[in-house]
Amino acid sequence: MFFKSFRAPLASLILSVGIARAAADLPAYRNPTLPVELRVDDLLGRLTLDEKLAFVHGASTFSTAGIPRLGIPERWMDDGPMGVREDVLRNSFAPANRHDDYVMCMPVLIDLASTWDPDAATAFGNVIGEEARMRGKDIMLGPGVNIMRTPLNGRNSEYFGEDPYLAGRMAVGYIRAVQSHGVASCVKHFVGNNQETQRGSIDVEMDERTLHEIYLPPFHAAVRDAGVWAVMAAYNRFRGQYCSENDALLNGILKKRWGFKGIVISDWGAAHDTDGTVRGGLDVEMGTNRDNYDGFHMARAFKEGILSGKYPLSLLDDKVRRSLRVMIATGVLDTREPGSICTPAHRAAALRVAEEGIVLLKNTNNALPLDPSKLRSIAVIGENATRLQAYGGDSARIKALYEVTPLEGLLHRVGSRLNIITSPGYSSAAGTTPAMIAQAVAAAKAADVAIVVGGLIRERPYDCEGADRTSLDLPWGQNQLISAVVAANPRTIVVLVSGSPVAMDQAWLSRVPAVLEAWYGGSEAGNAIAHVLFGDVNPSGKLPCTFPIRLSDSPAHALGAYPGKNGVEHYDEGLLVGYRWFDTKKIQPLFPFGFGLSYTTFAYSNLRVERLSEAGGPVARVSVDIENTGERDGAEVAELYVHEEHPRLFRPEKELKGFQRVFLKRAEKRTVTFLLDRRAFSYYDPAAAGWVMDPARFDILVGASSRDIRASGIFDAEPRKE
User: Fold this and answer.
1) Which of 71, 228, 601, 644 has fewest C-beta within 10 Å?
2) Model confidence pLDDT, tens digit, residues 294-317
3) Which of 267, 463, 468, 553 does the annotation list as catalytic?
């Protein structure tokens, strides 16, 4: 008996001793039991000059070279805010035409932002991390956290909207999840890359407060809260210098002030000069010249500069040390999980995000949800009902294993019970014609309900990299089409598939009973739309951006500050981006920031504000009761805004400083609590070169959107500079 009880611990001891001996036999840099920095030091000391240089520039379209003699593999990167991009040829962006690079297409990031759910961001990031591992990727180029300055930006769909706090919170969950699978996340594009027009040359000018309060916070959250391992420098200039060579941004703010220990990667082809990149803080140069990798700015020219004494070796060593730190910290030199592709869990995550992100914009007289037992037929009209969207967006395109279109989702849900009549209505290639409209009208008249699925597409010049939109309006005659359809059938539902705000003609918006913003929902888009339309899912999405009535209401356009003049763009709107502009200037939006309806109703009450002792932590606790007062279970997002009553420096009318998503069963009431630190009440003071909280009175505003405040309270602050 004693022998049996002793045998298991003995075996475990022998195994542990064996592992320890095996590790001891390894060189330090290959020993996973040693601290990361010790391994980095050991490996750096073993590298020759040429081997060090191999870490700081590309050796193919998406990789840097390995060091075979030391067992260091090639380092592979890939695009991937919404999934792992298909493999391309080694020296071009042409598809490799492989049969093993199909993946899950997740919803676009503005869809994820519409969930206002950091847990959904974690689920999203887990899919990216696991599928990247299966595809052999070491660094995933995402998420993008640039702020929506203009609704016309061609890449708005790849970002988290117009608010820096929301963008930061969502990015943190995404990044932590990706990196938990041994894959480095690369947050992008640092900084000021808020349009595609002239993105490779435009010189962005903004004041210090705008930089620190609007455009830097999502990156700061990625670095300080998520521990992101890579940052991509943007294409544009910032205050005269290209971002890939910008000493003030890369060395001054990112590495010194924030203490960033990872790597700065150039956007592809965004490096312009050897001296600028070497001294300016860039660590890895990509995409400069795919025909001659030795001709990169940080290749042969950098080596010659070191040998001549122009550049100290320490500059190169710091860049290489950062690359080694990332590789070792993410397990590149150790055994990593194998990963997986399109598992049931991945499909469930894609569906969850697509469902949670759908925003119900209008629902007059409870037109939705539809009851299939009371219907015999549905007309489904619009090209976007059948269009596949995953393989668009340029660098964000996804080779999806499958993609459920809106029409397919409806067929899955009610196709066996209802007669579904289809009509294209319009064409993104040719617009609409009288014959197409007549066919759509006939379909609408023949059906109990008409569903028009319109919006935009993930191609230029709409929601796509490389070009901005030229108009806020719905293209291809959709306004005319929807007006004709609703005239033929008053029970017309409009489903918008897009990645950015669109204007809506009052000629039809005032007549249709219901409108959904479904975004680009990825592989499970069609199922998510059907589930919301028929009430299997209660919509809970909230807009992460303002929908203006007209383009000229948006700040950059109202001030003539887009797209810039003579190669320079002045951010004249300053802090007043998105709802900060609309609320401060008292301009009525079409739909405000944070807006989204539900099939149930919620009541807010009993808001309490409690002062906390600081000690470096929260200074206030805000609690509010939320009750589901409707007839259906559902989720509500409570949004907390702060307003300073008499600020020393100008501040916007209100600023988002907290949000909580809460699911409530019918008649259930719960208390939602927010913890606010000093930063929630502070502004960046250029004179003090830091964040300052005034000894002022602050209004605490909690509600269902920036324009729908349901409860309020007061917080009186004490002064202190951070």
Assistant:
1) 71
2) 999 999 999 999 999 999 999 999
3) 267
